[in-house]
Amino acid sequence: MAIGGVGVGTGTSFKDSVKIGCLCVAWYAASSANGVVGKVVLSDFPYPMTVSMVQLLSISIYLTPVLWAWKVPSARPLEIPLKYWFQMILPLAFGKFFSSVSSHISIWKVPVSYAHTVKATMPFFTVLLSRIIIGERQTAQVYLSLVPIVGGVVIASVTELSFDAVGLISALAATIGFAIQNIFSKKCLKDTGLHEFRLLFILACIAAVCFMPLWIMYDLVRIVNDTSLVHSSHMPRLLALLVIDGFCNFAQNVIAFSIIALITPLSYAVANCSKRIAVITISLLTLKNPVTMINVMGMMTAILGVLMYNKAKYDQNQAHKKAALLPLSTGGASSQGNPLLFSDDLGNTGRLDHLRNVTMLNDSLGSTALLSQYHLNGHIVRTVDKRDDDRQSLYRIV
């Protein structure tokens, strides 16, 4: 059953399907409103850092009752080493502020539709940075899916009638920033055991507090000296739009996390692609920025590439979860105390070393895993539990 572009399994009740559908509609509406309102605000109020600060403060304020109502556990600062706060959490807060400001600069300089098309390159940067930072390899299908993403963005850029270099660079900077955040946020959640909302709250509070002096010295001083703006009859309207923009940003974050908890990763990926299409379509209809047919084709090609990437990534993750179940004879190398060689589905090689009945596996990327052994239908079978990240690799004894 398809609800709002999301595939809902046959085991899902009608009530759950309606709930998921309503959440998707609310998500699309909040994201679209966030993009359109942000563009309207920045057109009359060219202070992207202020818009970012309002959003950070909005998340901090609106999330407080949500955390209390949902009884989300506190951060327990004493259980998180001080060194970890400086090495991981503070840089994440800086990245959130930097990415938010860059994103608003891009929306200020170029149409919302084009900015969101450029942001569709996030899978490309995620794959590239994951390879550079943590040495993660992908399947050929994942790499091939990046071609239409990059190609679509290139076509959209070449044919964009309102093209602006600063807008393009800012959109790319924001996308890279969000990609790095995604990689390290997952690691932070895993290392600390924090709830996603709690981490979002912490990052928003730290970013707002740390960059308040910079905002006061740069943006606030300019706003106060802008007499035409201060005494403008449009100021109440701008303030109202800033409040709406902050709430929409908060709402889309909360709804996104709620949807993640209800549907499969692939369904969420499809919903996210549908959301981007909705944002682009609604921005074109409401803001009426001029586009050509080739420009629209470039946008849709990039979105299609994202959908292909999500499917390829899902298939890869499913393959990782299917650990090889190989019957091993007692007369093999393991019974003789000799190490077993192995290779995995990503081309890594290594050996299995026996240490006090616990088999530790070290591959060519330096990753470590536990090799579990148990009996199934009279045969000894082995499965692998990866410890370095959230993926599992399929290992074969060779």
Strand content: 5-15%
Outline, from the CA principal axes?
globular
For the biggest sheet, the summary is: 6 strands, antiparallel
The oligomeric state of the chains shown is single chain
Estimated helix fraction = 55-70%
Structural class: alpha+beta
What is the first-to-last residue Cα distance?
A: 43 Å
User: What is the helix tally?
Assistant: 12
* Average pLDDT rating: 79
What is the helix/strand order?
EEHHHHHHHHHHHHEEEEEE
Strand order of the largest sheet: 7-6-5-4-3-8
β-strand number: 8
Rg computed from alpha carbons, rounded to a whole number of angstroms = 24 Å
Uncertain segments are 1-5, 7-11, 323-349, 351-398
Topology (SSEs and partners):
Layout: E1 2-3, E2 6-7, H1 14-44, H2 48-69, H3 82-109, H4 112-119, H5 122-133, H6 140-159, H7 165-192, H8 196-225, H9 227-230, H10 235-260, H11 265-287, H12 293-321, E3 340-344, E4 349-355, E5 358-363, E6 368-376, E7 379-386, E8 395-397
Antiparallel strand pairs: 1-2, 3-4, 3-8, 4-5, 5-6, 6-7
Description:
With 398 residues, the chain is α+β, with helices and mostly antiparallel strands. The protein is 66% helix and 11% strand. It has twelve helices and eight strands. The protein has helices at residues 14-44, 48-69, 82-109, 112-119, 122-133, 140-159, 165-192, 196-225, 227-230, 235-260, 265-287, 293-321; strands at 2-3, 6-7, 340-344, 349-355, 358-363, 368-376, 379-386, 395-397. It has a six-stranded antiparallel sheet, with no helix packed on it. Strands 1-2 form a two-stranded antiparallel ribbon. Strand 5 (358-363) and strand 6 (368-376) form a beta hairpin. Helix 4 packs across helix 7 (165-192), helix 4 (112-119) packs antiparallel against helix 11 and helix 5 crosses helix 7. The chain is globular, with a radius of gyration of 24 Å. The two termini are 43 Å apart.
